[in-house]
């Protein structure tokens, strides 16, 4: 039985489009920048020794502990953070919409985000919505250097059912993939040492079984394990300050 094939989008979202955000959040002068610009800071031990991840979810879309643990374990393989990784998760108001545009996602983040990069702490904000993206075949998007959004309705509708991957497997794959973009993959903040970029699909890996491949199969006819980074992606992360 063939399943739907979903694609990943990672958007270069420039601060100039919403220039007011720096004025509203003066503490966030290290956030709200172009995707990939904090790759080295996330990978290396200095100047940020601690990574904090703020997960804000809409009602009914909290992350399960297994998905959070999988993400932390994934990050511990590749990033140097001597003070560790801290994860905070809390609920925010529902959107009340079946689908959200990128502009609406940004507005929700700016209204609710409470933790920012400061001193020796770098912070990632992950928003989990109660609907779809304006493109319903999109599971998630990373749009700023410390910002990602996961579309909860797309996840729940395509996992956990008959002949579908488990919810934890799909969510873990999405979380790790989007973090890969925040870490600069592919060639978007962590330069390639060898060419493995899928030019037709943006900042994605050309190796089909890599975590950073542009598409994911959601039926049980596809690979059951959470995809791993291929050797080229790992080499790029190491060269940019990672383990």
Summarize the structure.
With 243 residues, the protein is α/β, with parallel strands linked by helices. Helix content is 27%, strand content 21%.
SSE topology:
Layout: E1 5-10, H1 20-24, H2 39-43, E2 50-57, H3 65-78, E3 84-91, E4 99-100, H4 102-112, E5 121-129, E6 132-133, E7 138-144, E8 147-151, H5 152-157, H6 167-182, E9 215-217, H7 231-239
Parallel strand pairs: 1-7, 2-3, 2-5, 4-6, 5-8
Antiparallel strand pairs: 1-9, 7-8
Helix pairs in contact: 3-6
Highlighted features:
Collagenase (Catalytic Domain); 27% helix; disordered N terminus; alpha/beta; single chain; 243 residues
The CATH superfamily name is: Collagenase (Catalytic Domain)
N-to-C order of helices and strands: EHHEHEEHEEEEHHEH
Terminal Cα span:
39 Å
* CATH architectural name: 3-Layer(aba) Sandwich
Strand order of the largest sheet: 3-2-5-8-7-1-9
**Domain tally:** 1
Characterize the largest beta sheet: strand count, sense, and whether it forms a barrel: 7 strands, mixed
Number of helices: 7
- Give the oligomeric state of the chains in this entry, treating copies of one chain as homo and distinct chains as hetero: single chain
Tell the overall outline. Answer: globular
Q: What is the CATH C-level name? A: Alpha Beta
Which stretches of 5+ consecutive residues score pLDDT under 50?
1-5, 9-27
Say what the CATH topology is.
Collagenase (Catalytic Domain)
Q: What would the average pLDDT be, to the nearest integer?
A: 87
Rounded to the nearest angstrom, the radius of gyration is 17 Å
Number of strands: 9
User: Strand-residue fraction?
Assistant: 15-25%
Please bin the fraction of helical residues. Answer: 25-40%
